[in-house]
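Objective 1b: paired records.
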Amino acid sequence: MEYVTGVPFETLPLSEAMLGVLREAGLRLSTPVQAGCIPPMMEWRDVIAKAPTGTGKTLAYGIPIVEHANPADKRVQAVVLAPTRELAIQIHEEFEALAKSRPGTRSVCLYGGAPIGKQLKKLERQPQIVVATPGRLSDHINRGSVKIETAKTVVLDEADRMLDMGFVRDVTRILDRMKKRKNLGLFSATISREVLDIAWVYQRDAEEVTVREDEENKPDIRQFRMDTDDKATAIADILKETGFDRCMVFCNTKSSAERVAYFLRLRGVDAECIHGDIPQKRREQIMNRFRRGELPVFVSTDVAARGIDVDDVDIVFNADIPDETHDYIHRIGRTGRAKRQGVAVSLVGDYPSRLRMDDIAKKTGNLVVPVRFDSDGKLAPVEPAQGE
C-alpha cells in the first residue's frame, strides 16, 4: 500500500504514555511511513517498508517495539539490526527517549570498534531491546553474553545497505535463532533483490508500505555540477560565495577523503574527515562536533557516512562522482530536509566522471545545472555551446 501523508499520532493505537512522550518532543503528526507501519506492527504483523531517507523510519518501528515491551520480563524481547555503528547508536538514542513512556524498559547498543567489556556490563542489566550491528551481535551470541531466542520482534534497518555490505550470512544466522518471533520488519530506502530474498524466506503476508517521493516527501534540492580539477578550492570558494556553514563532502575512497580535508584546511576551511581506518573514538568526536554545529565541513566516504542522520545540512558536495546512482541519491538526500531547500554540487574532474554524471542525471530525471565562476568570481550558469 502506498502512503503519501501522515496522520495525527492520536489517531493511531498508542498508549497515553507514548502520546505524552511524543507531545513532549513536539511530535503530533506522524510521517507517512509511521502512519503505514505502526498499526500493522502493533498487531504483530510483518512489514516491508520502502521510504526515502529522512522520513522517520526509526519511530515507525521503535514506537510499536516500546509499546509491546514488558518491563517485568528481563529477557530480550526485540532485536534491531543496523549496518553501521553510527546508525546503531542513533537508533539506541531514539529508544532511550521512547522508553520514558514505559519505565523499566531498557535497551543496549552493541557494535564493533568499541571495548566489548563495557558492552558486557550493560548486558548484565538485562535489556529487553537489543540494537546491534550484525557482526558484533554474532560475537556476543558466540560468547553467550546475549540470548536472543526469546525476541518477538526483529527489525532490519537500512536492510539494503546491510545486505550490500556483506552481512547476509550473519543476518540469516541471527534470524534463524529467533524462532519465537511474531513479526519481522524490513525498512529500506530501496528494495533490492537481497531484501526480497529475506522477505520471501522469513516473512508471511507482510504489509507492504511504500512512501513515494511526491511533493510532500521529496526533498527540495537544487542540483549543480562544476567542471574543475581543483576540488578543494572550488568547495572553499563556493562556501565563501554562498555563506553556507553546514556542509558534507562525499568521496569515493579513504585517500580522497583525507586529501580533500587536508587541502580544505590549507585554504582556511575547518574540515575533518572520517573513513573506515579512523579509530571509532575519533570518528565519534568528529561526528559530535558536526552535529553540534562546531564543525562546518564534514568529509566522508559513503560507508563511513551511513547512519549519520543530520537534518539541517545546507549543501552537499560530491568531490568524487559515485559509481552507483543510488549512492548519489543517498548523498544528496542529506540536504533539503525538514521542508528546507537544499543544494548539491557535483565536482567533475575527468571524462569518465562526466559520463557518470550524465548517466545519473538521466536515470534520476533530475535537472543538474552546470555552473562556473565568472570573471568577477561569482557563481553563474554555464551557457550552452552554440548548436547544443
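Objective 1b, second protein:
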Amino acid sequence: MSIKFRLTVLSFLQYFIWGSWLITIGAYWFQNKQWGGAEFGAIFSTMGISAVFMPAITGIIADRWINAEKLLGFCHLAGAVILFFLPVVDNPFTFFWVLLLYMIFYMPTISLANTVSYIALKNGGKDIVRDYPPIRVWGTVGFITAMWIVSLLHIETSAGQFHVAAVASLFLGLYSFTLPKCIPLRTKTEGQSLVDKLGLKAFSLFRNTKMALFFLFALFLGAALQLTNAYGDTFLHDFANVEAYKNTTAVKYPAIIMSVSQISETLFILAIPFFLRRFGIKQVMLISMAAWVLRFGLLAYGNPVEGLWMIILSCIIYGMAFDFFNISGSMFVDTQVQPGIRASAQGVFMMMTNGFGALFGSSISGIVIQKYFTNAANVKDWHGIWITFAVYALVVAILFALFFRHKHDAGATKGLPY
C-alpha cells in the first residue's frame, strides 16, 4: 500500500470527524436543545481556547518525546469516548466543559496530521508542495461526505451527528498507530538553553519580523474562518422564519448547500502548487483575503430564491479563501523551520489561526452581533452582519499588503519555493 494512499485515508478521516458536526452544531443547539445565543458563542469558543495551547504543547511533545503518529492516535481515541458521551449532557454549562475537553484532544490532531504527512512524504523523497495538496484534498472530500451523510439522514438537529463523528474518531485513532513512524529528533541537552530543553524553540520564530507578521495576519484570517463556521448554517436556517423561503431547498438542506464550499476546496487545493510557485506566499495570501471579502459580501445580498446564486457563488469562493490561507500557510511554515521543530512550528501556526484567531473571531463577533445587529425579538440583521465582516476582511487585506514583506523567487525549485 503506497504512502500516498495511507496518508489519503488519514486526511479523509481527519476532516470527516469535524464535518460530522461543525457546521450543524448550531442547529442542534438552537432547535434541539433550544438553548440561548449567548451560551452558543461560548460553545464555539472552545475551539479557540483549546487551540491556544494544545497544538503547541503536542507539537513540542512530538518533536522531543513521543512519535507524532502515536500521539495522533491517542488523541482521536480519547476524542471518540468524549463524543459518545456528549449527547447525554442536558445543560449548556456542562455541555461547554465537555465540548472543551473534546476540543483539547481534537484541535492538536489537525497540526499533528499535517506533521505526520510532511514527515512521511519527505522521508519518502516526495515534494510536499507538489504531492501534499492531492492528498489533503481528500480531507475536504471527507468533510463533504460527513455533511451529506448528516443532512441526508436528517440528523442535523439530533445527537446522531456526534455518534457519526465518534465512530470515525475511534477508527482513525486505531488506524493512526499503523502509519509511518515519526520518531522525535532527540538531541543532547548539555549546554542548551532552557527554551531548547523545554522544546520551545519554535516560539523563537516570533523574533523574525517576517514570521511574526505572518503569524499575526494568520490570527486575523483565523477570525474570518471562525465567522463563517459559526454563522453560515445558522444564517440559512433563519430563512425558515420567512414565509417565502421556508420550503426552499436551501432551508431544508442547509448543510448540503454549505457543502458547496468544501466541494470548491477540492478544486482550489489542487491549484495551490501552481499559485505558490508562480506568485509566492504573499500574493496567494492576498488572493485569499480578497476572496473573504467577496464571500461575506455575497452572503449579505443572498437569499434562498432569487439570490440563491449569490449564496452558491460565495460558497465557491470560500474554497479559495480557505485553501490559499490555511493550507498554503501551513506549507509555508514548514519550509521556514528546521526539522527538529517541525511539529511545534505547526502547533504555533495552529495556535494563531484556530486558537487566538478563533477566540478573537467568536468573542468579538458575538458581542457586535448581539449589540448592533439583533433586535428585541432576537431577530438578526444578516445583511448588516455580513457587510461588517466583509469590511473587516478588506481592512486586513490592505494592512497585509502594506506591511508583510517576502521576496518570491519564481525560478526556485528547492528549499523555499515561495
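Residues 254-301 form the longest helix (48 residues). The chain has one domain: 3-182+197-403.
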